[in-house]
TrEMBL record:
Higher taxonomy: Bacteria, Bacillati, Actinomycetota, Actinomycetes, Pseudonocardiales
Domain HTH tetR-type: 10-70
Keyword DNA-binding attributed: yes
UniProt superkingdom: Bacteria
Keywords from the named record: DNA-binding, Transcription, Transcription regulation
GO MF assignments: DNA-binding transcription factor activity; transcription cis-regulatory region binding
Annotated protein name in UniProt: AcrR family transcriptional regulator
InterPro entries in the cross-refs: Homeodomain-like_sf, HTH-type_TetR-like_transc_reg, HTH_TetR, Tet_transcr_reg_TetR-rel_C_sf, TetR_C
Keyword Repressor: no
Gene3D superfamilies the UniProt entry points to: Homeodomain-like, Tetracycline Repressor, domain 2
DNA-binding interval(s): 33-52
Length: 185
């Protein structure tokens, strides 16, 4: 029986994605080369170029498939605690070198699909928790939970992107406390 080409292709694709993520974490984006990815994955450069035109799209796909998936933040019963934990997960993701390297490149390349695929799940989690808080009376009923989630995440992503100051737990706590004063007001 001949070897299964589809399975071999899936193995090669996975090896390329893993190699790309390992190398971008070790070397950074500027020193990453398709040649190095091919060598680490045990494939020819042509194999990589058959699927991706350059390292940017390769890293995007690698990150979508292998990128950070933070732990589920289960409701504790205290809105401030839940929001702080959720934002701390976002900060931990941003602190990962591979996340930082890949996302900065993708932002630079104006990949708006980055927002949808990578950042949206965190926002959805916040919106769901805020909706539950609205139903329980912890947050005013007239609050736009989508805008409130952006108020929470915006400062975190802005500080990460601009590197104006370190991302810390104290910063997260201050953001949540400030936003909650407005939401409960």
């Amino acid at each position: 029986m001949p070897p299964d080409a589809a399975r071999r292709s899936d193995r090669s694709r996975r090896a390329i994605l893993v190699a790309a993520m390992e190398l971008v974490e070790a070397l950074g984006y500027s020193k990453l080369t398709i040649e190095a990815v091919a060598a680490r994955a045990g494939v020819g450069k042509q194999t990589i170029y058959r699927w991706w035109p350059s390292k940017g799209p390769l890293l995007f796909d690698a990150f979508v498939e292998l990128g950070p998936v933070g732990p589920d933040v289960l409701p504790s019963g205290d809105l401030a605690t839940d929001l702080k934990r959720e934002l701390r997960v976002a900060v931990a993701e941003l602190a990962e070198r591979r996340f930082d390297q890949v996302c900065r490149v993708l932002v630079h390349e104006a990949r708006t699909d980055l927002v949808t695929l990578l950042l949206m799940p965190r926002r959805v989690e916040l919106e769901e928790r805020l909706l539950a808080a609205q139903r329980s009376g912890e947050v005013r009923v007239d609050v736009d939970v989508s805008a409130a989630a952006e108020l929470l995440l915006g400062p975190v992503y802005q500080r990460w992107l601009l590197r104006t100051a370190p991302l810390t737990g104290d910063f997260v706590d201050a953001v949540v406390d400030l936003v909650l004063r407005a939401l409960r007001g």
